[in-house]
Amino acid sequence: MAKQTKKSRKTILSGETKSARFIRVVTPRIVKAVKAIELIGNCAGSSYESTPEQLEQIFNKLGSTIQETQKKFSAKAAKDDSFAFTDG
After folding, report:
1. Single pTM value for the model
2. 3-state secondary structure string across the chain
3. Which of 14, 36, 49, 70 is at 20 to 30 A from 64, Cα to Cα?
């Protein structure tokens, strides 16, 4: 049975694991992101003109967004809930 919430209107399969849900949700998002980046690449054609500064801004933004996304996953994996007093 599928469960639908009013708030998000997303279908959540009952019994679906977090891992399976991750794969189901992230796959189309990756496809969409790759397609969007490919569309940006289409602007490299002779129909467009850009400055080195514009290109630097584009790639800086894309790079920083990827780095921030990687940090979100790294922070989740590296979360440490332990505690100990230090000598001092």
Report:
1. 0.68
2. CEEECCCCCCEEECCCCHHHHHHHHHHHHHHHHHHHHHHHHHCCCCCCCCCHHHHHHHHHHHHHHHHHHHHHHHHHHCCCCCCCCCCC
3. 49
pLDDT exceeds 70 at position 27: yes
In terms of DSSP bridges, do strands 2-4 and 11-13 run parallel, antiparallel, or are they unpaired? antiparallel
Contact by Cβ (8 Å): 35, 27? no
Q: Tokens at residue 75, please?
A: 């922070």
Domain parsing of the chain, residue ranges = 1-43
CA atoms within 13 A on the CB side of 61: 8
Residue 87, CA distances (Å) to 64, 76, 81, 83 in order = 38, 28, 19, 13
pLDDT at residue 6, as a whole number: 54
CA atoms of 49 and 62, how far apart (whole Å):
19
